[in-house]
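subagent[fold] <- orchestrator: predict structure for attached chain, return tokens only, no commentary.
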Amino acid sequence: MGRLQRLIRLCSEVVMEMLRLARVTPEDVVYDLGYLSPSVNARLRPKLESQLRPGARIVSHDFPIGDRAPARVVQFKGPERTHAVSLWIIPSR
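subagent[fold] -> orchestrator:
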């Protein structure tokens, strides 16, 4: 298994553990594995907040989603560097 596959597997395991701890199903989560840049994430956040139901989760790998602080951040060591997986929860309207 290559480095990228190991990293994706590890990141997915972290996300699934976060889901288990939060008692939500995968259907409640938008998982940004695409490494979207902070500026793209900031532009995307209003659309996510308006279209996702309150309580839905957004998970981002390494990059923030706008200026709102995440509800939780998990850091893990990959083969070459430390990564951060951040969790945001869509607020009530």
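orchestrator: received. Logging for downstream: The chain has a mean pLDDT of 78. Residues 3-22 form the longest helix (20 residues).
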